[in-house]
Amino acid sequence: MNFRILAKFLGALLLLVSIAMAACGVFAQFDVADGSGSAASSLFLSAVIVAAFGAVLMLCCIGKIERVPRREGIVVVGLGWLLCGTVGSLPYLLGEPKLDLADAFFESVSGFTTTGSTVMGSDAAAGGDIESWPRGILMWRAVTQWLGGMGILVLFVALLSYLGLGSKSLFCNESSFQTGESSTARIRDTAMLLWKIYVCITVVCFAGLKALGLTTYNAIAHTFTVVSTAGFSPHNDSIGHYMDWGNGWLIELWLGLFMILCSINFVLWAVILRKRWKRLRDEEEGKLFVMICILAVVTLTIGLSGSHYDGFWTSLRHCFFTLASLGSTTGYATVDYTKWPVFAVMLIAVMMCVGGCSGSTAGGMKVSRLIVFLKTARLEIVKAFRPNQVFRMHVNGNATGDSERAQAVGFVALYAFIIIISCFIVALFESVNGIGFETVFGCVLATFTNTGPGFGEVGPTGNYSHLLPVTKVFLSLLMILGRLELYAVLVLFMPSLWRRY
To answer: How many helices (H) and strands (E) does the chain have?
Structure first.
């Protein structure tokens, strides 16, 4: 293992995080809201500590790095997310009201992984309700999600020109870009183009929210967390805060459209800009994702009309926003969906597992793997009756071989296995608190799929503050595991691979 490479890249990553902290400190310094002075101090102090740590790592490895081997690239990606979550907890530890160590780590990791699970709420141990926190800290909370949405390590690739050939190892192991498009273009140019698209979508979303009447602060905070499909809101009742506004339905519609937009592969938007229409026609994943959302909304709207909501349009409003939010793994809430019928809750759980498209800011298993899994299942059924026939399978216009099919099926199986084992571990940790299965399953599913709110006591009206510290740390690791889509993290615990390769 080349520790010089690790130190240099992780040090540069810390410097980027410190710049974001300092920017939030500047906002807090000039914010007129109460508590801004304390927030500014904690953010500036955190930025100095992180920058100093990053500078030390950088200075230990002076010189240009022309290439990063795949092994070191995987380690940088895995440790990079863990390191960002760790140093990102400093403002929560140093500012008032303070979080304890486990809570601060949980909140920071939840931000960078765009999960949206929170320990901030009505529990006094969690620092009081969300709106009691200084706006500077809440802005940092939103910024962590915006950075994590496109993938802070991809920003790292895009901005640092000295990466050279080494950028490919980082780019291809960052879960936001596990797509065939990344191997057909210059990695750094592609990363920069996708970040430009991300910034443009952010600007358009912000302009729309401002036009709908949100303050600049609220428009920025919600824009950062909607385009990253993350879900942190500076309000205790999330987007439900705007339900009684005259144009509240327009705000929900605007946010819902951007949640769906950002759950589609960002490479597809680059394809459109480059006018590669054949690739657009062959797109299966994005079309299936939109179709799933439409069918789910229609089904629930009809099912809840009359029984839970008076009128078709009220039912449509709540079903559209809730399914757009949870299907994209954003996690905003306007209603308590846990009070819906069992079939509706089960549908929501399935959509949380599937998530958005590969190459998007959404979490979950990804629609592309669902496509490969279903096509593989159909193929095996047909082969059972026609063993001598030669079959070919295509996804998004590209031929899919045996290795890709095996990897997709293995991923789905491993995904389910981790959920089951994690439920057992959380239940074991929380046995002294006596929490029910619904809450245990909700904790695991919401954090592993990077959705945020779950079911039971961690549903849209609850939070994670009542859980034990060891449970919060374990769930934080699940967030990172889900964000990096398993392999880039699990491979770190297989030393035999490091010795062999």
So the answer is: 22, 2
